[in-house]
Structures are given as C-alpha cells and as structure tokens.
Amino acid sequence: MSTPPLLSHRLEGEPYHYRKMQAIGPVVSKIAHDINNYLTAISGFSELVMMELQKLGRPTGATEQIMAAAEQIAALTRKFQVYSRRLALKLSSIDLNQMVSQNECFFRGIVPDYIDLQMDLSPGLWPIAADPEVVQEVLQLLIRNACEAMPNGGQLLMRTANMEEQENTEGTALQEFSAAYVLLSIKDNGPGMSDEAQEHQFEPFFTTKAGHQGFGLFTVFGFIRKMKGSIRICSEKEKGTTVQILFPRDYSESSVRIE
Predict the structure, then answer these.
(1) Distance, CA of 148 to CA of 232 (rounded, Å)
(2) Are residues 55 and 123 both part of a single domain?
C-alpha cells in the first residue's frame, strides 16, 4: 500500500522537536512529584476535616469541593507523569475499529449538531498495542479541539487505515518503529492553524484558546510516544487541520505493561 503525500513528506524539523520535548520530561516529572506531595497533604487533611464536620453535624460542602479539586489536579499530574514516562500504561492488543465503533455514540454525543461527524474505518485493520482508555481520552480531546475550531459548523472526518512507511526514517523520531503502521486521523475543515501555533503546538502551557491551560496536545504527545506511536499535525489557513496518529502494527496478542 503506498503512502499518501500527507504522510510521505520529509520531517526535517522532527528530530529537533522530539529532542526538545524529551528535555522537558525530567522537569515535568519533578513538577508532578512535588504536586503529588502537596496533594497527599491536602487530601489527607480534608478527609480529617470532613470527618470532624460530620461528627458535629456541620455542612461539608466546602470541604467536598476541596477534595474534588484535589482529584482533578491528581488527574492532571497523571498526564504529566505519563508524558515524562514515569507512570505505567497497560497496553493490550486492540482492534482500533472496534474500539471506535463501540464508542461511536459517545463521540457523537460530544459533537454539536451543527457539525457533521463522518467515519471512514478501513476494513481488515491491523491490531495495535495500546491502552484503550488512553486512546479514548486522546480521541475525545482531538474531537473537542476540532469542534472548537468550527464554531459556525463544518465537517469532521475520523479515519483509520493500514499504512506502510516507504520513506527512510533514519535520523528521525520514527526510526525505532517498524515499517507497518495503523493510521488514525481526525480531519476538520475549520480555519486552520497559524505557522506560530504549529511551531509550538505540543509545548506545555501553549494555547490559542482563552481560558484553556494548554496541556491538551502536550499530554497527547506524551501518551502517543509512550505507546511507541507518532503524531503529526498538518494544517493550512482556511483549509482545515488534520491530526494523524501512527501506531506500529502489533504482532502479538498479549497484554504488556510499559514502565
């Protein structure tokens, strides 16, 4: 199977970009470790306060909000830890088409009525080694991003396909992978991304959206790399954005724990 032009272009900037993201990993890990230490104290003392308030018959709403916020922060630090490769993921051999089909109702539920969601799932798709919950989280985030890029409506295409990399990838971030891949792509026909946004798209805290933290694509990058995959984003102004994720074909059927 030939590689389409969108996948076969040279990745001149990828080695530098990958090294830059690798350098951030230890810093992210240290931050996540420190935050977890604070969370342990916050959660522990909140539980003690909750118990005392319950004994006294006093309202516990404020304490419950503190504990809920702590849980949300804990979920965020988990993403940090996954990115920095210090948290284990349980990988299993999965059928990506089956996973997408099983969650189709959920995905359609988060897509506004003014956006047309279409799916093009290639039959006979090869299995991949991935964490199903993480893949679902990644898809959910990418779908939401695409929808936010089309506030006036548009079309969103989710596609899967078997791919064979024909390009020599020596010296790039893909050199460790096999030649057979499973492609998962999310394409929108929104306004596209600026050159500046594309240059910084995977960096932490970078965002073009008001009120957002800028961790979305940063954590997606970490998730995909943890699963030995690669993510590429192709965008042109006024022509939309395509997010492509390449998973190496899995030749085993056993579950794998990745540290």
Answers:
(1) 19
(2) no
151 and 191 in a single domain? The answer is: yes
The answer to whether residue 8 sits within a structural domain is no
Q: How many domains does the chain have?
A: 2
Q: Within this chain, do residues 54 and 117 fall inside the same structural domain, yes or no?
A: no
Would you say 49 and 204 are in contact if contact means Cβ atoms under 8 Å apart?
Answer: no
Eight-class DSSP state of 85: T
φ, ψ at 236 (rounded to 5°): -135, 140
Query: Which structural domain range is residue 32 located in?
Result: 18-83
218: in domain: yes
How many other CB atoms sit within 10 Å of the CB of residue 29? Answer: 17
Q: 245 in a domain, yes or no?
A: yes
* Domain-located, residue 1: no
pLDDT tens digits, one per residue of 106-162: 899 889 999 999 999 999 999 999 988 889 888 988 998 899 889 999 999 999 999
Is 258 a residue whose pLDDT tops 50? no
**Long-range Cβ contact pairs of 110-117 (< 8 A, separation 24 or more):** 110/140, 110/143, 110/144, 110/147, 111/143, 111/147, 111/156, 112/147, 114/152, 114/153, 115/147, 115/150, 115/153, 115/154, 115/155, 115/156, 116/154, 116/155, 116/156, 117/143, 117/156, 117/158
65/100 same-domain check:
no
Can you list the alpha helix ranges (DSSP code H) found in 167-255? 195-200, 216-226
Q: Which residue has the tokens 């516990």?
A: 60
CA distance 114 to 152: 7
d(C-alpha 135, C-alpha 100), whole Å: 9
